[in-house]
Structure formats: structure tokens, C-alpha cells
Amino acid sequence: MTTEQDTYWLKSPYTVLFDLLHLHRVKPWDVNLSQLLTGLMKEMKGRGFIDFSVSGTALLSSAVLLRMKSELVLKMEEPPRPTPEKPTDYVPPPLAFPIRFQSTTTSLDEVLKGILDVLRAERLLPSETAQLVSRTPAVFEQADDWLVKIEDEINAFYSR
Fold first, then answer.
1. CA 85 to CA 55: how far, in whole Å?
2. What is the pLDDT of residues 11-49, one digit of tens each?
3. Please, which residues have CB within 8 angstroms of residue 33's CB and are 6 or more apart in sequence?
4. Are the C-beta atoms of 13 and 39 separated by less than 8 Å?
5. Domain that holds residue 25
6. Which of 32, 71, 36 lies closest to 54, judged by CA?
7. What is the C-alpha separation between 8 and 43, in angstroms, rounded?
8. How much helix, strand and coil, in percent to the nearest 5, is found in the chain?
9. Does a structural domain hold residue 96?
10. How many domains does the chain have?
């Protein structure tokens, strides 16, 4: 037997079944699997023996083609996706930039008037709030025994 007779499955029309690397390029609805597989089996039986590696590869590629056909059918059954709505959020107008102190000119009189206004406003504050701020909470007034004797605890730890 010559090599041409040995590799009958690599000739047209069977090349679709045995070119697994380029199988994804084939349009699955253009391939008649029934005709190809029956023709391949007749060719094998006509030669007197069935090559299981060749028939296994043909089975694999036909399964891949059938899967591709079923994916295309399922894709056609999918409802079309709705177009996403554009957000209708209110976008406020841009804010004006704050005045930078580098570009303003302030006289010494204006600075002194501002300081005096702050000092007058501070005098008008009630004195009760100043007492509340200066008073420490009762939680911190009670010292824990362990914190009082912390140096003794540290020395005991180092002496172990």
C-alpha cells in the first residue's frame, strides 16, 4: 500500500473532520455530518479493516460540530438584550473657583480688624462652656491599680 492509500481520510471531503485546529473556522451548517460519516465508514469497510483512531477523531470532530450547531441555535433563541438607558441624573453647574490668597491684597488694617472681631466674639461666649471644656471626664480620674503599679509589674516581668 502506498501512503496515498493509507491516508484516505486526509483527502477531500473528509479533511473537515480531521483538521481539528481549523475546525472553529468552519461554518457548522455547511457540513453534512451524516453523509461524511457514512462515507468514511464505507471507505473503511471497503479497505477490509476499521481504524479506531481515525474513527475516534472523526467522532470527536463531529461532536464539536454538533455542539457548534446547538450553540448557534441557542443564540438565536435568546431574546435581544435591551439597550441600556442613559442616566438621567441631574448634573449641577460647575462651582466657581475659590479666591486664592495669593491673588488678593489685604491691608494691615483689615487684618487687625479681623483679629479684633474674633477676640470680641470670644469674650461674648458663655463662661460655662469654657468650664466644660477644661473639665476632664470622671473616667480618667480613677486610676486602675494595675496602671498605678505598672513599674512593679514591669520589674516582676523582667526578674522572671
1. 52
2. 778 788 888 788 788 888 888 889 988 988 888 888 888
3. 62, 65, 66
4. yes
5. 3-77
6. 36
7. 8
8. 65, 0, 35
9. no
10. 2
